[in-house]
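mind reviewing this stuff:

——
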Amino acid sequence: MSSSKRIYFSGLNGIRFFAASAVVFHHCEQYKSWEGLPNLWGAEGWIGTFVDALGHKAVSLFFVLSGFLITYLLLAEIARSGTVNLKKFYVRRALRIWPVYYLVLVIAFFILPQFISLGNWNEILDKYFTISLVISLVILPNFLRATPVQVAGANQAWSVGVEEQFYLIWPILVRRFYKVFVPFLLILLGVKFGIHFLAYFGSNYFHGSTLGTAFNKFYTLWYLFRIEQMAVGALGAYYLYHQKENILKLIYSKYTQVICLVVFVSFFFFNYNELHSGSLIEAVIFLIFIMNVSTNDSFFLKLKSKRYDTLGNISYGIYMYHTICISLVMYVLENMGMTESIIAYNVILYSVAYIMTLLLSYLSYTYFELYFLKFKEKFMVVKSGMKTQAN
């Protein structure tokens, strides 16, 4: 962190950028599969695991990072003022998340379907249009994962919904339990996995029945509500804020870093989703990675630079706009008859969609998001990040 009064973790912007970029390439393969084009989505062996990990592990990284950063700021606010100002917290989150989120919904629900159709998703969306729109408008897009609906151009918004639901309850919980924070987090993890196993066994025990279907849908939604990963991030924030030297020494150890690197690489070759504790393993590894990048000056990976700050600022845009860009590029390429040339099609799709996403995200941040973010400073109890950074 810098020595100024503002709380700022160097390196987090670089992490955000690379994680958001990984999701872009993950969804290129997914969207090709929807369109019935040659793709690696769900491929057998390590290739399919690698493609899956690019997106899903990046989202897990975002969850851990959110839990870490938000909790650290909340602990600092409690130390400074004795409480958490809920109104200011919610306004800050709304100013950062809502403008781009609702803009993407407008494009995905009302504009893209007018001239782009991937697979049969438009027909399914037409059938469930009203309920899907309402669910998305109240920021519950993760609930669509338990329905037949996929909203091309906005299917990535499910994780934003999970984070917004986390933000809704987290400041209340931190304010209530900050004096017994570690026991609270351990109990929370126990509750999360206890309900997880009940839903899992219920869906299997009642398989084939209406009750089994209900259990299965609940299991899907509960699995996606990765509060355990955000709780692990929060645990790291607690140890860092209170400077628990024994824990920090372990996290910064060279041996821990090597183990973390080996397990991190294994994510791209082995499917940890088959383990019920897989999300927890991911969270611990990503927390160690985040804390070393942002607070350990001797860590081998350096992600602190003005370039990464700029790219990190637009990372939310990269995450939210990229599927729209992928859809548009695929539409143009198919109308140009490029689908027969697999190599040329993929080179153009990946390069143009990514560059287009970067450009759109930069323009969005500069000329749209900053308009709202300039008001965010007024609602900060604890100053955080750079003045131009989306926190």
About this structure: The first helix runs from residue 12 to 34. Residues 12-379 form one domain. Residues 334 and 378 are 48 Å apart (CA to CA).
